[in-house]
Amino acid sequence: MEPVEPLTDAHLTRRAQAGETGALGLLLARHQAPMRAVALSLLGHGPDAEDVVQDAALTALHRIGDVRDPDAVGAWLRAVVRNTARMRLRSTREIPGLTALDHLHVHPDDEHERRIEQHALRDWIWDAIGSLPPKLRLVVMLRYFSPVASYEEIAAACDIPLGTVRSRLNQARTKLARLLLDTAQASHDDADRRTEESRQEALATLAGWESGTLPREISNLWPSHSAMTGRLGRPGEHVHPVPVMRGYLEDGVRQQLRRVVAGRDIDIWEMDVTTAQGALHHCPPTLSWLMLRRDGRVQQLRVVYPKAHALAPA
Fold this sequence. Notes:
There is one protein chain. The chain has 13 helices and five strands. The chain is an alpha+beta fold. It folds into two domains: 180 residues, no CATH class; 113 residues, Nuclear Transport Factor 2, Chain: A, CATH 3.10.450. A five-stranded mixed beta sheet has the order 1-5-4-3-2, with helices on both faces.
């Protein structure tokens, strides 16, 4: 029996560009040591260097199609690390770590984006996010998939200190990079299907509140133990979301679904808002519903707003 030739970088790169998650996982594992060496040469030993390596690996998930010379993918990965490290050195503000995740939603004029969406990369990333512990998953989804993205806004939305936000994001970044490598060969859930199901629930909920009657399947989404938390809730009291949101609707506040981000048990519904003249409540033009679920049903709903806006309590 002739020995099996090892897979070359060029072969793995072409397979990764075709959407094969296992090939991309092997590439990242193969080049992890030289990528780390570049980060250490620029940033020295410490958490910044490790963060930059993980950031660069996650960027490669999205940008592998940019590689023009598959034989030189190692040099390309090291260049990604170098650029990420230099950005960190130049910047006086915190830079989002999961750069690749900012671009998961396809742009109609980007052929490469459409091709990747047709394959497994998006499901692979979302499965890895879904495997994070709930507290880490929540801050990742807010930071990289919602307009409530600053550390201060996340702290307010989750009712945690600013330092805890930083700590959880750092932990999530480390765990996510490892999960992606560990699960590259596995099968993954359909993220598009989950998002579409959540979108239909959002539309049916809004339509039901407009008409005054929630369909049974949507009523099941909002069981009696569902609770408003945060600004629209009342500390120490159980406040159900339906009467609260109906109250704002009757006051002339209208919400229209803009975008849905759906995880395994965390959903974010982004809304455009219009407020009738003379309404008692002054609403920002956009807001987000942050929902924590169990067995598909909403346990908690927290309405969160852009940093510059506030909403008068009901």
